[in-house]
Amino acid sequence: MALSSIFKLRQEATPALLELLNNTTLGTNGAKYRHLDTTERILEADNPLFLSMERTDKVIGNATFCQRDQFWYIRYFAFHSFAQAGNKKKKTDKGNSFLKRELNLFFDEVFEGKYSDKPIESMYAYIDPRNDRSKWMSENFGFKVIGQLATQSYSRVYPKVSTRLEIITDWELLKPLVEKEYSEHAYFFTTHAQKGPFYALKDKDGAIIAFTRVTKVNWEIVRLPGKVGGLLTKIIPFIPFLNKLIKPKNHTFLVPEIVVIKDNNPTLLNELFSGILAAEKLNLLLWWIDKQDPLYTSIKDKIKWGFFNKLIGVNPVDVVERRNPTSKAISKGPVFVTAFDLV
Question: Which of 109, 119, 151, 261 could cross-link 315 (Cys pair, CB 3.0–4.6 Å)?
Fold first, then answer.
């Protein structure tokens, strides 16, 4: 059975698709934000497949998949008027039924190997558990929660310079350290993480004792989380110090990945993060990491994360997965997170 003609499969993003993604505001309950880097970021997608819902030269919906051998990651999921919870339920029932039927057909065909050399093991995605649209996607297409990430902020109004912070460009130098730390994590891969440069700390003998890769990100923050999040977004530009941390119209921050810290030492992590902010002349990092990751469980209560953390707390992100019924279970360990997947 073939997909409806309204669906198109492509390996490159079209201008109409970029228009949809650039105009998509993410989040429904609590925080709302819009990615400002989408046009550039989408070019970094690893082995992408774009499933678009199109009508009269307009893209009205899209699911973008990053094909990672036997595992597919769902990078974008945006559909106009469909998957909307709330008072419009009757109006959208017909559209939702159509969308569910067609996408479930596509998912079944993917697991049968129609779009790859062989049947895949699983699909996975990250969703905000408070986001009605994301929950709708997960619940209606057989995805199950297998873990949870922490959205951990680290902010400094005046970040401290580290005199031993260095930039390293040689991935082969860091590769064995990364594999030792993360190779047993579920969904481990390094297509994005191995792209340098990397920030590192070395001891007096020249040995690497901490390092990470960071991605610079630009968002428009429409609304911050919390009961007064909407009001805060409006008044923050006028509040001293806080307006250094948050710039709602064009909010620039850093996202670390493959964070490796010798002995999970919180002092080293603090020096690394603060030093990077000072070097980049920025004030905020957002770090997405599995809540069960040994590094995070070791240091989360030993770091002063900064004022931004006091303001919004640590927000959860669900890891959801739909497995091929014939496949074996993946590692029960924490999930490996790469920055590209969340920005």
Answer: 151
Contact 198, 212 (CB under 8 A): yes
- Tokens 């062989």 locate to 118
Structure tokens at 228: 């007064």
Q: Around 182, how many Cα atoms within 13 Å sit in the side-chain half-sphere?
A: 24
Q: How long is the chain?
A: 343
Sign of CA pseudo-dihedral 280, 285, 286, 288: positive
Chain segment 217-245, per-residue pLDDT in tens: 999 888 877 766 777 788 877 777 778 78
Q: What are phi and psi of 37, to 5 degrees?
A: -105, 10
CA 314 to chain centre: 15
30, two tokens: 């609590």
Cα separations in angstroms, 67 against 45, 77, 117, 244, 324: 9, 15, 11, 38, 15
The residues, any chain, with a CB within 8 Å of residue 91's CB and separated by 6 or more, are none
User: Looking at the DSSP assignment, which residues form a beta bridge with residue 186?
Assistant: 335
Residue range 322-331, pLDDT digits in tens: 999 887 766 5
Q: What are the E-state strand segments in 120-207? A: 122-127, 144-155, 165-168, 198-202
The closest alpha carbon to 225, from 343, 341, 127, 131, belongs to 131
Q: What backbone torsions phi and psi does residue 299 show, to the nearest 5 degrees?
A: -115, -10
Choose between 308 and 93: higher pLDDT: 308
The amino acid that residue 98 corresponds to is F
Per the DSSP assignment, residues forming a β-bridge with 123 are 72, 322
Quick one: average pLDDT of 48-64? Answer: 91
How distant, in Å, are the alpha carbons of 200, 211, 251 from that of 259?
Answer: 10, 6, 23
* Helix locations, the chain, DSSP H: 15-22, 38-41, 89-111, 132-140, 171-182, 229-235, 242-245, 266-280, 294-299, 307-312
Q: Do 156 and 306 contact (CB within 8 A), yes or no?
A: yes
Q: What's the rounded Cα separation, in Å, for the pair 341 and 288?
A: 10
Cα–Cα distance for residue pair 259/289, rounded to 1 Å: 9
